[in-house]
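The material for today's practical consists of a large collection of protein records. Getting from the letters to the tokens is the skill we practise here. To make this concrete, we reproduce a full record directly below:
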Amino acid sequence: MYSSSARVAIDQSLSNAQRYATVVTFASSEQVTLIRVIMFLLDRFSWTTISLICEDPNLKVPDGGVYYFTACRGFRTVLGGQKHKYNLHVHYFDPKIKEGDLDAYSSVLRNAATQSRDERRASWNDRGRLYLYCPTFAYTPYGKHANKKWVASDSAFQSLMLVYNPSPNWAALHEVLQSIRNVSEVRYNRSLTNIEMLNDITVSAFEVMTILLGIIRDLSPLEMDVQNGMTFRQLFLNRTFNPLSRPVYIGPKGMRICDIHISKFNITSGLMEVSEEYLSTAGNSIRTHALSTVWRGRDGPPVNRPFCGYTGELCLGGL
């Protein structure tokens, strides 16, 4: 289980066709529902041993470190508070390491590999693993090869599951994001990268400001005696707002409630496609699609513990 936006490191030595490792990473517009859905998946498939790999909270990170620390803390609190049910291991790493710096990840990855089936994306090409990944927004994973053609990485992504909030309407947000970039360059002499612009934290901030301005407009025509904090709060509750990005529902306790999509790789189309929808705004109902029953090379989901153990320690010849 991975609570981070950090880069990917590849360690082929961690590949193991029998381990069926599950990888969970975390960052989203609404943390509560994602934690609930992850627990739903863990319980449904009887997966109980988890390695939570987090950015080190003691190291300052400019790109939302507090946000990810909060997400990681949420998992620690919920899963760690149910010791009778889950066996949780927590590992920290330096989030400022450079992309491809394998040595910086290796010790954390190897510790996780000996404790549970949950790891970082250790090897995309492992034919035996099942990956469960929660990105900041939905996307279709593609690989750029030496011939510079974009091709679907079939062998790498057939064991991947994406768990995420429905994506923003990026096309509708293009002018808004470009305006933010322009202001940043003129006022702060800083050029924002695409990574800094096209992420859920930026979009969520835009949604908050848009919704807040809408509430202020709703409050302004009211009589002075009802323009108070209580009325201001009530105008947020049990209501769906429609900023340019996507619908935003605020529940009865003032918390944002989001639906969750679970996607798998469709080998026919070569794309990640929605296999299940967790409809939080419709009473936590679940809508399933045909792809939800497809397990690569198996008749069902992987077992909680590999027959030979996580590193082959239970078999004489290893794995």
The chain has two domains: 2-165+258-293, 170-256. The longest strand covers residues 271-279. Residues 200-219 form the longest helix (20 residues). DSSP finds eight helices and 13 strands in the chain.
